[in-house]
Amino acid sequence: MRTQGLMRFAKQRLLLTMTGGLLVFGGSAFAQPANDNCATATVIPPSAPPYTDSVDTTTATLDPADPLLSCNTGDDGNNTVWYEWTPATSGLVNITTDGSTDVNGGELDTAHGMYTGSCGALVEYACVDIGLNDDLVVEVEAGTTYRIKVGEFAGGVGGGNLVLSVEPPPEPEQFVIESSRDGISPPISSLVGAGAALSAEERAELAPRIQQLPNLKEIPNLMPEAGSFGPTDSESASSSGSAVPTSGRVAMKGSPRVLQSFEGGENDDNAFVLFTLIAPPDTVGDVGRTHYVQMFNLLTEIFDKSGNSVLGPFPTSVFFTGLGGPCEAFNLGDPIVIYDEETDRWLVSQFQGFSAPGFQLCVAVSETGDPTGRWFQYEYEFGGIGFPDYPKYGFATDSIGLMANMFIPFQGAGLGVIDKAEAMQPGPASMVFFVLGPTEFGFLPGDNDGPSFGNVPPTFFTNNGGSGDSIDVWEISPDFEILENSTVGEVASLDVTPYDSDICPAPRERCIDQPGSGTGGEVDPRLTITSLEAISSRLMHRAQMRSYGDDEDDDSDSDDIDLRAVLNHTVDADGNGTAGIRWYDVRNKGRGWKVKKENTYSPDGDNRWMGSIATTKSGDTCLGYSISSQTTYPSIGVAGRRGNAKRMNVREAVVFDGNAAANVQRQTARWGDYSSMNIDPVDDTCWYTTEYAKPNSFIGERFGWATQIVQFDVDDDDDDSDSD
Fold this sequence. Notes:
The chain is mainly beta. It has 7 helices and 47 strands.
């Protein structure tokens, strides 16, 4: 998409002048298309869909008075045309430019949007610029007049043959995927040993080799921006940002009690193990009955629950020893580890692509509850579908839920399930996977922590990829006997207080300040102290669920459904670009999903982002996140909520104070891309891991990061839980 838009700078511009409504070139006149202006828009019949129109836009012009599309780059190009539509019926439709071609016969890189109001007083309703040809799937209301502007990405390439169609929304595309490779690893403990600090002499010997490597890697940055999807901020966000009106006083209940805090992996580990430095770390972890497993790009380390390293750090590909193929040969990243309380098993995963033919997801499930033992291994080939970026997983009844954002080409979110029984024994394991289309984004799979494990369907939650006023819930109904009979669909759209995900105009909301952001690179640009990415276009790992089974106080015929989920994402908390964390507590007691509580956590003027949230069995909530601003060095904070309080009522504890070391991250803006809050299945405490800024041993604060692991609780036996 972006490369085609940039082609225009390599082309010689032809001198055009405008005379009496005609374009004049070389003495010849070319008429503009009839729908060149808003006032002369082509009228789409009220009965649409279906509807298709084709128009030559090479002689179209841009009226300087026209509003610019908010999802584009501030330049809609000179070749814009207009349509007008007053639908006869309400519903969801797809306004698509599929089939449009540029003057060279290639795919035309369009950007288009819908407005309400009259020409000269238009209000943007929805906008899309994701792929080359784009789909804009929107809800329309019968009798409302919409005006549709079609332009080109980043100034365009001079127009072409534009095809605009109004269609029913696309159906998800189903794929049945059998594991292309499967196997069983040797015990991991036989392949790697416990981590040991290198001596000063060993570091000095390795340093010159690493300093000269070109391997400063950034994990593929493929995500669309916040605001690239659906209704725009003018429809959803307010001048006060994403604040949630809350009446009454909420009594504060002290601070989290930190039980232990210890160092996790750092970028030096990548240097010493794989001779590379990388960003971002994609820090993730989970806690089981006897171990804590942490993963980060591109390594894994296993700890006992006292914080002692048991194995590693070692390349994540070790889990796939003996499997063959790219899963065993390469480490690309986006790691995930989750623990299943029901079966006492672990799941680990990373993606593959670009280093070998095709695109793969590599999944391993432990044979027992001991993560140092053997693992069942699975490779899933996605080469005929697309690149499965940012994969996330969650355990459900009989299923392992999967979400991946599909690229090359961009196809929006994909939702799938793996047969849980097959994955926990030797042999192949099947998956059914649905590609939802380029307008669906921002999903996470629900991950059930119990204490009940029946009647939990594979559930997925989304903030729809950016600013809005709803959280949607989808489910897959799997049929593992005949996978083709499996179905996917939206089961609920939950109204929430409007939220604004557009924290700033920078790519991926690259506007989280560090002290000195934008300075330091006067002599060497690589030394620039960057503003960090907020990544506000999606829900943040993980979508923790709990099933409580039969509720004795609920006399409904609910099939013993009593589900709870907690969710979070980054928002503009105050309307001034301060990042905060919007969180939700949603419930389903057999009558459908409902929002029980919601609020935005932003206790002061510092940015808080990259959050992760979970609830304990006893019903308390733990929240972890990063903190930074122009005056606060990148730090780690945790807070909590006891009972059903309207707000986080357990005060913030800074578990890593960045001001003490005063370190920043330079050269790269990548931060996160996620963190992980998990609940101990033994003692119901909270475990959180994320990154902080720490110079590496080779190029200092450039690509400088490390991680922390903290165990804490928010319970206080001497203090009653606050409720509303």
